[in-house]
Amino acid sequence: MTVCLLCDQPDETGGYLCPGCTKATVGRLTALPGLYDELLPFLAPGSGSSTGRRSAAVSAPLPVSEMVLSLRGPGGLVGVVEDWLAAVRDARRMPPAPPAGSIETRLQTAVHGLVSHMPWISVSWPDAGTFAEEIRDLERAGVSVVDPADRSDRGTRLGACPAVDAGGVICGAILRHHQGAKVVACEWCGCTYPPATWPGLKTWMDHDERMEAEWQSAS
Length: 219
Known about the structure:
mainly alpha; two-stranded antiparallel sheet; 2 domains; elongated; 6 strands
């Protein structure tokens, strides 16, 4: 009997990943292409220029668009998955498979490749734990943008946070009102909206949605 390198639980199969963690890793891998697509709408709010309609509401440590750009860029989801596929192929003494096509195509190809190697990874690869942990963290990073609310208390979806940082970049993270909460708080930038600001908050959201629609139509 061995111990699973991801969950640290005893594994009677004698491999590096237990059956449960192997199945979960396959699920996380196959979810990545869809997550890549879901991140696209979160790219636009931080991409437009400042309208100058209001002063900065918050100094955000990291605009949403920067994280989305990172996850959707060459070094994000696709880069991590391709690097692991290359490591697996090298460990199995297989020739390199040069990336080809768009980022979407490359991501799907790399995911398919890793899934096909999962039986070997879970049983025979000493790096299986590190690999599974990084894939788990990668998925969590994407989900933290597209669905930041606690799944046990999703709250009421209000719209995109209209806070503007010092550089004129709109936050754009999804705001939710949770039952019993006296203020609406952005879980991304930290800006809070007490009840007195809610009418204006709705106006800002509607304005930003129109600006985003115009930006997408023009792009």
